[in-house]
Amino acid sequence: MQIGIDKIGLYAPHLYVDMNKLAVRRNVDPEKFTIGIGQEKMAVAPITQDAVTMAVNAALEIVDDKDKEAIDFVILATESGIDHSKAGAIYVHHLLGLHEHARSVELKQACYGATAAIQMAKGHIALHPDSKVLVIGSDIARYGLATAGEATQGAGAVAMLIGADPDILALEENSAFKTDEVMDFWRPIHSDKALVDGKLSNEQYIAFFTNVWEQYKAQSGLGLADFAAITFHLPYTKMGKKALKAVMDEGTDDDAERLMTNYQISAEYNRMVGNIYTGSLYLNVLSLLENKEDLQPGTRIGLYSYGSGAVGEFFAGILQPNYRKQLPVKQHSQSLTSRTKISVDDYEAIFEETLPTDGSEVTLDVSADPAEVCLAGVKDDMRQYVRK
Questions:
Q1: In the prediction, which pLDDT does 215 show?
Q2: 326-365: per-residue pLDDT in tens?
Q3: What are the Cα distances from residue 234, in Å, to 251, 266, 283?
Q4: H or E element: which one contains 237?
Q5: Across 235-258, average pLDDT
């Protein structure tokens, strides 16, 4: 039985800041952002969007009434959780109107969380072939204004339906993974902003990739020639390129040209949205599938997942015969190109606008947010969500 990605949906906030404008404000050569790290736009989440609302907005794009009956497991992967105890997946389950006979949990391991969720989903589907698992990676990347990591911020969510006989990507059994205790990126419990050792994180990202790639080759007997493309978790778009170059000498010139060309295509959405942590790898996958129109069914796509702290994994999937019919290409193109560009001043004001931390109540104006699901405020220490 084949198990994999049956549907995939995307949500990015309707606001963004131009990286050229941000660079000028920070007295940085714009090419350091646009070429050096490879980012053009950064999605900015208004206060009316959080990990829950973005997750639901992404899921609404793909979940129909038939899916609602089949989904019996909801996994929200996030490192932007809204509660220390209650899983954000409970809110997702409720706002989507799913039936009560479904497990709903939240999963955390930095940017690796959605991959762990998919592996859990595969096990569940193996036992329950008629069911579907809803996996969502949803995050708001925050490092702080004028910090070294500011240019690698972003916000968004990718939702995936995992099931048997998938229409998009059938995931193969071979999978190589590694865990090591590394303090390259973390967010202390008292902080709403991440801390990062950028140099160490870059080094570990590549080191983990080469390690799990070697494991994977030993398991599978496959090499670069067997892949149409390799997709990556991208904190910024140049990061995956560095990792790919680390193994490129293993293949032919044709392999190098094919993989690098497809890498650039796969990074298009990431360049326009920024880092969305747990959803970043799957944003990369979606960009490849939607923007590379001549990818042939039956070809193999590699996936490299990395979550600081750290866990890394390499696995692969086979494109299914009618995969393009399941991709809302026009809808994604329209949603990304119709976003509103905001000034750096507006971006900074939105960044500094946060929910109260003293238990006080707040009502938010959701009229300016075009998303179907929004955060409308906080009352009695409970977030108030609305579905328009």
A1: 98
A2: 999 999 999 999 999 999 999 999 999 999 999 999 999 9
A3: 23, 10, 9
A4: helix 237-245
A5: 96
CA distance linking residue 87 with residue 77, whole number of Å:
10
Say which amino acid occupies 86: K
Mean pLDDT, residues 83-104:
98
User: Which of 14, 61, 93, 111 is an active site residue?
Assistant: 111
Please state, in angstroms and as integers, the Cα–Cα distance from residue 323 to each residue in 192, 329, 368, following that order: 38, 12, 35
Is 233 noted as a catalytic residue in this protein?
A: yes
Sequence-distant (≥ 6) Cβ neighbours of residue 192 within 8 angstroms: 142, 354
Integer-rounded Cα Rg, in Å, for the chain is 20
pTM of the model: 0.97
pLDDT of residue 349: 98
- Single out the residue of 204, 210, 157, 202 nearest to residue 51, CA to CA: 157
Q: What is the DSSP string of 73-130?
A: EEEEE-SS-S-SSS-HHHHHHHHHT--SSSEEEEE-BTBTHHHHHHHHHHHHHHH-TT
pLDDT, averaged across the chain: 97
Q: Is 79 a catalytic residue?
A: yes
- From the candidates 14, 233, 332, 374, give the one annotated as an active-site residue: 233
The reply to whether 358 and 305 lie within a common domain is: no
CA 80 to CA 49: how far, in whole Å?
Answer: 11
Residue 114 shares a structural domain with residue 231: no
- pLDDT for 285: 98
> Domain holding 23: CATH number?
3.40.47.10
DSSP strands (E only) in 146-290:
154-164, 169-179, 185-186, 195-196, 229-232
- pLDDT tens for 277-323 read 999 999 999 999 999 999 999 999 999 999 999 999 999 999 999 99
Q: Which domain holds residue 379?
A: 3-166+327-387
Whether the Cβ atoms of residue 323 and residue 8 lie closer than 8 Å to each other = no
Domain count within the chain: 2
